[in-house]
């Protein structure tokens, strides 16, 4: 579904990504892991269009989207969550989730302002869909009318996932979905991500620190170290790879200046 | 053509006061990323303090100026403590609106206390014109320029070489690191408000001397602010140049189009710059961490 | 309003709507019969209030919902007022064309000033709107041949079906209709895809992009819509005062609307209404109070009235921003919750 080919990215002479390729297969969960400063977040920002790579290509469902800005990528079916939660304060949980469907709706100022039947139908349909597909799946019904900033951290992460889902994306990018969570919350989040994949056949690409989560739910794992891919395969293959073990345990001996 | 050169020189000379105002705006911006829309009103209030001290209470010029300066600093510290400090960490437009509101309060209070009419402060500058070759510069303008330049240069030197100046630059570069190194950022911010009060007081008294004193004396600082923001808020040098550019432009448009155009010249310039170079003259595109 | 209320009401929005419809209906009936029971001065006042509500909605769309600070709102209201006046004088257009035209003209000119700086973040828009305030006011004063300078223009009363809206009661109904319509419209926009996108732009513009919200497009929409509201308010004001002159649209009026939005509560339609009501009543109360004081101490209060307003507007802005940034709407909500808990 998503093919990231040979990405090179430098910041003022420092190589953040050196020839990274990732392929997220349709309906599978693909994970990118690596120690701090391996370039995971840079990779995500390249995929969502915030950073322009020096070379390389990003293809979504076969189409080259390398030249597109973030919002155009959203219109082509890419959605993502953020490492540090990026919800909109001053809105309810429900309104935050509705924002995720922005690209699927059409109303402009006039049809919205006059509350034309087209807008009314569109909003009603969206409401029904959210109630039916997302609120239940992610167990958010008891908080949907709460102000989003009043929610606990774990719940906010879930709202962000819900918002990324209502777009019905072709590819769902999750940026450290369990960062900062306790064990219970991590287990829940892992379950939600697999539920999403199983129920909707969504293609998921995630980056994560937490090895147990990644190994538990991923179909395919890519390991980055200092901006370079050092291994890729099933969780079991990766776990057994000596380079990976070295990167995680011996990382301190590498020059830290390369960190991006 | 001769006229043009003469007006240009007079304009640049009146730009000296603007540069002083600009300096007051930028030191506060450097310490706390606050755009002080009340700068003009602080300056105008200082001039009224000077008026009260010298005319109402018949103090001498020097004593009167000291009183005005003390009053200005007290007001600046009050503003910083009561209205600016609680806004730390809030969105910048909220802080802008607070300073804008403070400007409105000062304008109103001055209007209530001293009334809307023009007042005359005692002449501190000689009227006798200065000749530059065969170019004639009005005496007050020339002397105000000289004073402004001396103060500006002195303050810049002070900010460059004093401990406080170094601390300010450290705080401007990275407030958190500076804080962890034992620099009290809040005191630095208060310190920059004092600097602004000083530049405001001097420019206010000079301005009231060149023109007359009204509650709208401070409006000119909005023009300065507009051009300063366009010039980019990073370099003190660039900002000073912006001050001179306004003075020059006002004089030249006054000559070519008529004096009524002077008040909108800086804004027309601002819009033109935005059209040609939307990130400001010396600005760079910022990247937000996500 | 709905977005706001949904965010605050813990009961279901559907229930809120039913309750709300009832109150709204009741309020409408009261407003409709008001001219039959209230003194004429009140009706004049209600008309002014209505115009201020529309203009405050406009600034709230820009500043409250989208986070675009405008210091030139008064000038855009002025553009609307002059457009309506000139459309009547030179083109003989009826009010029901002239007023929407006033809105469109203000939107066009507003976008013209805003466009270059909407592309970037930061203070540039503030400067551009400040420039609009001064430059447009300059045009009102100095474009003698069109605006008649400081003297201004005289406007004939609006007429509908041969009835001339030449007193405060008749124009009151026109304004009432406009307020209800404009409020309904903004509520609808805010509870739609467009309104959500505006708030997203305000809160986190990069995240909004990831969701497919084109930031510049929505900033432009907010700016155009907000200026349109200002223009309509200006058009109504022209028919209400029946004259237009530059003095009405100075910086002080921009400060007035800034205070109204801040005091009411940024990003709340209910707040915009509360703020406009509060800020319109306040100068009257100030005047009454000052007259009393003046009588007692025997000095001419008229001299300090304008600066007194300036002071109080500024004080309100600053204290609400520091102490209650969500404004009267938040206080209202809290009071209501307290009341309901009993």
UniProtKB/TrEMBL annotation, chain A:
Alphabetic keyword roster: ATP-binding, Nucleotide-binding, Transport
Keyword Nucleotide-binding: yes
Every ABC transporter domain range: 2-251
Recorded GO MF terms: ATP binding; ATP hydrolysis activity
Signal peptide (UniProt feature, chain positions): none
Gene Ontology CC terms: plasma membrane
Keyword Metal-binding among record annotations: no
Name of this protein: ABC transporter ATP-binding protein
TrEMBL record, chain B:
Pfam families: BPD_transp_2
Membrane topology: Multi-pass membrane protein
InterPro entries associated with the record: ABC_transp_permease, BCAA_transport_permease
Compartments, record wording: Cell membrane
GO molecular function, one term: transmembrane transporter activity
GO BP: amino acid transport
Recorded GO CC terms: plasma membrane
Major subcellular location class: membrane
Membrane-traversing stretches: 7-29, 49-79, 91-115, 135-159, 188-207
Keyword Transport: yes
UniProt keyword list: Amino-acid transport, Cell membrane, Membrane, Transmembrane, Transmembrane helix, Transport
Assigned protein family: Belongs to the binding-protein-dependent transport system permease family. LivHM subfamily.
Protein name: Branched-chain amino acid ABC transporter permease
Lineage: Bacteria, Pseudomonadati, Pseudomonadota, Alphaproteobacteria, Hyphomicrobiales
UniProtKB/TrEMBL annotation, chain C:
Subcellular location: Cell membrane
Primary location recorded for the protein, binned into one broad class: membrane
Keywords: Cell membrane, Membrane, Transmembrane, Transmembrane helix
InterPro entries xref list: ABC_transp_permease, LivM-like
Transmembrane segments: 19-36, 42-61, 68-89, 95-115, 122-143, 171-190, 220-240, 252-282
Topology versus the membrane: Multi-pass membrane protein
Name of this protein: Branched-chain amino acid ABC transporter permease
Pfam families: BPD_transp_2
Entry's Gene Ontology cellular component terms: plasma membrane
PANTHER family: ABC TRANSPORTER PERMEASE PROTEIN, HIGH-AFFINITY BRANCHED-CHAIN AMINO ACID TRANSPORT SYSTEM PERMEASE
GO function term, MF aspect, one: branched-chain amino acid transmembrane transporter activity
Origin organism lineage: Bacteria, Pseudomonadati, Pseudomonadota, Alphaproteobacteria, Hyphomicrobiales
Protein's organism: Mesorhizobium zhangyense
Keyword presence, Membrane: yes
Record CDD domains: TM_PBP1_LivM_like (cd06581)
